[in-house]
């Protein structure tokens, strides 16, 4: 459809079409197999014209009479893209034209193509969305395409992260067997998130495509490249020396830097930073290889843009310490002895100080039953890959607390490793089956830096737990680089402002400005806010005046393993 009726579409389904011409247009569209809708954004009401069963596989249209019920059926991997595209349409009148997967009544997903036009009021606020949905499953059903997307990045066509790790594992094994040496490089585009925010995703994608092509042009036959993140590429160089790896990295930097990228905003330049390591001389398995290269890339970025650093040259203070095996064993024993517990800290309403919910903070009791702070053992647990075990124990404790104390709500923390753990999610589903009252009182906290590291995985996690009836909070808000677009795509329920910005708030104008900005950003999309580390009434008063909804900190109560309300 060419959308010749674009200016007339909003309001098409109302009884104000005296000539009947627009109604005839709708009839033609419906007869051709399209599904027509009008979404009242204020009342969140959806009106459909056409056969929902034929187009999107929903036989009873009353199941999707609100925007919320419609969104619940969109594939969790595609929902963030649709939300971002709709936000861009509202903000800048960019065309809303998108394809995504939609869950049918039979549980399978169909590919649909949606186009829509928003109508705004005099103030420019979107009031109504009118559009067309078309089934395009036939065009998307090719087995070859499905197989390709399983192993390749959809934008560049290069290996995706999973396939690249498999290839790296094979390369490490081959190199060890042949007693040779290989190199691994992580190439990170500098400030790509800023490019996306300022110029849009189309320009950011143009940068990614251009860099992908330039990297490929610099490779030898047999070398492997993959896109492993929003702004990252990984390169596997087989049978090479350290000098050859350095030469390849220099070529990458030069070819990326020296030629402009043609974008819809005109020619623009991009730079990259690179971290590298050698295997098996420096790293002997996939985990070590990726970890060392990632550490080298982070250190290179500390030096500024357009930099290259090998892991051997990373300053010692930037290399994570080796895990304390003694502490790790103590945690394992504490898990066996049920000495991993929760300490409960109140989170209160900013206006009157009344406890609204509690955060369950993980603690380990030593052999004398004295609490050991999380900061002593959690970093080591994370390094040792044991965080899933601790998170499962925390979940068990949290659910038990909610069942035994029906008057309270509780938040617990979920690590990045656990957020993508299907076993943990199945455990959560089992705990909450037939327990809607427990689910609605459970809040799961994920940190901002983990959430934006992989928006797709994070959105999928948020979506999964929301379907169970739980809420999700974004912890340490402000510590990372979450944009307005990312925040909307994540679709969390509340954000917790990082405590480092609350500390010394009354005497730090920079922190005051930053906190004010974070609160405004959250409120702009209707999110509740929690300020952490509140230790004085002066800090609390400032935060109340700025509009924070909830407060948390020692001013209102220290974490306690046995509070008076605990059954």
What is the average of the pLDDT values?
87
What is the topology, as strand order, of the major beta sheet? Answer: 13-14-16-17-18-19-20-21
Distance between the termini: 62 Å
Biggest sheet, in brief?
8 strands, mixed, barrel
Structural class: alpha/beta
**Contiguous helical run count:** 22
Total of domains: 3
Tell me the CATH architecture of the largest domain: Alpha-Beta Barrel
Report the C-alpha radius of gyration, rounded: 26 Å
Note the beta-strand portion. 15-25%
Walk me through the structure:
- This protein folds into three domains: 120 residues, 2-Layer Sandwich (Beta-Lactamase); 168 residues, Reverse transcriptase/Diguanylate cyclase domain (Alpha-Beta Plaits, 2-Layer Sandwich), CATH 3.30.70; 228 residues, TIM Barrel, CATH 3.20.20.450.
- The longest helix is centred in the middle third of the chain and has 18 residues.
- It contains 22 helices and 21 strands.
- By secondary structure, the chain is α/β, with parallel strands linked by helices.
- It is globular.
- Helix 9 packs across helix 10 and helix 14 runs parallel beside helix 16.
- Strand 4 and strand 5 form a beta hairpin.
- The N terminus is likely disordered.
Give descriptors for this structure:
3 domains; alpha/beta; 567 residues; 42% helix; Alpha-Beta Plaits; globular
How would you summarize what this structure contains?
With 567 residues, this protein is of the alpha/beta class. The protein starts with 20 loop residues before the first helix and ends in a 15-residue tail after the last strand.
């Amino acid at each position: 459809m060419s959308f010749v009726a674009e200016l007339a579409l909003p309001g098409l389904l109302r009884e104000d079409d005296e000539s009947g011409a627009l109604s005839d247009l709708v009839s033609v569209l419906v007869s051709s197999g399209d599904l027509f809708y009008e979404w009242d954004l204020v009342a969140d009401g959806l009106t459909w014209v056409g056969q929902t069963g034929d187009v999107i596989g929903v036989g009873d249209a009353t199941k999707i009479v609100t925007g919320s019920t419609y969104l619940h059926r969109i594939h969790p991997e595609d929902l963030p893209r649709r939300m971002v595209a709709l936000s861009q349409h509202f903000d800048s009148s960019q065309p809303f034209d998108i394809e995504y997967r939609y869950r049918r009544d039979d549980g399978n997903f169909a590919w649909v193509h949606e186009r829509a036009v928003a109508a705004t009021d005099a103030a420019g606020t979107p009031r109504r969305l009118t559009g067309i949905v078309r089934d395009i499953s036939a065009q998307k059903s090719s087995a070859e395409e499905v197989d390709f997307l399983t192993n390749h990045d959809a934008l560049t066509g290069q290996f995706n992260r999973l396939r690249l790790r498999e290839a790296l594992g094979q390369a490490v094994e081959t190199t060890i067997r042949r007693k040779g040496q290989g190199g691994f490089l992580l190439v990170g585009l500098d400030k790509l998130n800023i490019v996306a925010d300022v110029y849009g995703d189309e320009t950011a994608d143009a940068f990614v495509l251009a860099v992908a092509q330039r990297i490929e042009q610099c490779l030898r036959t047999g070398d492997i490249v993959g896109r492993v993140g929003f702004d990252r590429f990984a390169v596997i160089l087989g049978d090479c020396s350290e000098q050859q790896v350095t030469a390849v990295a220099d070529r990458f930097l030069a070819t990326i830097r020296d030629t402009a990228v043609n974008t819809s905003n005109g020619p623009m330049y991009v730079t990259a930073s690179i971290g590298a390591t050698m295997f098996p001389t420096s790293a002997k398995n996939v985990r070590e290889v990726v970890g060392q290269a990632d550490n080298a890339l982070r250190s290179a970025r500390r030096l500024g843009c357009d930099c290259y650093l090998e892991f051997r040259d990373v300053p010692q203070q930037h290399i994570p310490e080796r895990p304390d095996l003694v502490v790790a064993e103590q945690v394992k024993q504490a898990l066996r002895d049920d000495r991993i517990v929760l300490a409960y800290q109140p989170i209160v309403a900013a206006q009157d100080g009344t406890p609204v919910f509690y955060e369950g903070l993980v603690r380990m009791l030593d052999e004398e039953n004295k609490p050991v702070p999380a900061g002593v053992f959690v970093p080591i647990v994370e390094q040792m890959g044991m965080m899933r075990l601790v998170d499962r124990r925390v979940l068990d404790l949290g659910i038990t607390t909610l069942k035994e104390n029906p008057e309270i709500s509780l938040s617990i923390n979920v690590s990045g490793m656990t957020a993508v753990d299907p076993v943990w999610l199945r455990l959560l589903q089992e705990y909450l089956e037939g327990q809607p009252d427990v689910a609605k009182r459970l809040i799961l906290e994920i940190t901002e830096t983990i959430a934006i590291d992989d928006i797709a995985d994070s959105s999928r996690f948020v979506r999964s737990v929301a379907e169970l009836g739980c809420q999700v909070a974004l912890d340490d808000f402000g510590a990372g680089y979450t944009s307005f677009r990312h925040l909307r795509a994540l679709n969390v329920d509340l954000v917790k402002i990082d405590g480092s910005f609350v500390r010394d708030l009354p005497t730090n104008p920079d922190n005051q400005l930053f906190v004010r900005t974070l609160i405004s950003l959250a409120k702009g999309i209707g999110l509740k806010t929690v300020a952490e580390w509140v230790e004085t009434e002066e800090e609390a008063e400032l935060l109340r005046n700025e509009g924070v909804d909830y407060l948390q900190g020692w001013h209102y109560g220290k974490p306690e393993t046995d509070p008076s309300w605990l059954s």
